[in-house]
Amino acid sequence: MTKTRTDLEKQAKRAIWQYAFMRMESAIVIGGTILLSFFYQSFMPPWWPVWGWPMMGAFALSLLVVSTLTDKQTRVRVQSELLQENFNPRALGDPHLRHEVTKALEYQRSIRSHIARQKSGVLKDRLTDTARQIEDWVGNIHKLAVQLDAYHHDELLMQERNSVPSELETLQSRRSETNNPEVRQQLDEVIASKRKQWDSLKALDERMEQADLQLEQSNTALATVYSQLQLIGAQDSQGGRSERLRQDIQEQVARLNDLVSSINAVYDSQGS
């Protein structure tokens, strides 16, 4: 289980418990219990105990909490809202990237909702594990989108992309014009450093182009997963289709994770 998924599941559990106690119905029960306990106790028959209203209120609240915790669609909605908050598309400046992340979150929500409607059993357990892996997938899509957004708005990179070739040309021209061995050696060192910088810039541009294509491919693959889930039914008792789907998802998650790591490595090499 990845750190992203572990953190999300912990947050989801807390969020569902908070929602169970803070939903409108719970507030009405708590408020009504307080009012009845303090203002209507004197109107009750002598045999009515002081703790009668609090006990009834606690019982009603416990029923609401249990029904919230066990309601499948409520769980899906709370988890989707949590993902929306953690992987907020509105934080991205690029409209295209916002669209891609929003689309990934919509697929994730639809997949979760579809699985929640399935009957309990071995198949549903397999599909639930599949849904957890898709959260890792969407998390990597968001990481990739964040990196692309930063790259598209990095003014320093734009300046370097424009200036480094001309700087290299100037340095090489100076080297060809000087006869001083010490100056030539210093220029060689600067030229080598500039070439390394230029190579890193080109490597980053190529990796980001790959990332842009991978982002669209990943959402297309998510759409395919959603379609395949509709085909998996009770006849998949041996888990053949669901197991192949799980392997496909693992491959997508690993591919995205490798791409994110490789982009980080290119950035690190620029800073070194």
Structure write-up:
This protein has 272 residues and is an all-alpha fold. It folds into two domains: 1-70, no CATH class; 73-271, no CATH class. Helix content is 84%, strand content 0%. The chain has nine helices and no strands. α1 (3-22) packs antiparallel against α3 (52-70). It is elongated, with a radius of gyration of 29 Å.
Helices, by number, come to 9
Helix content: over 70%
Q: How far from one another are the termini?
A: 32 Å
Which strand-content bin applies to the residues?
A: under 5%
Largest sheet: none
**SSE topology string:** HHHHHHHHH
**Approximate shape:** elongated
Quick overview of this protein structure:
The chain has 272 residues and is mostly helical.
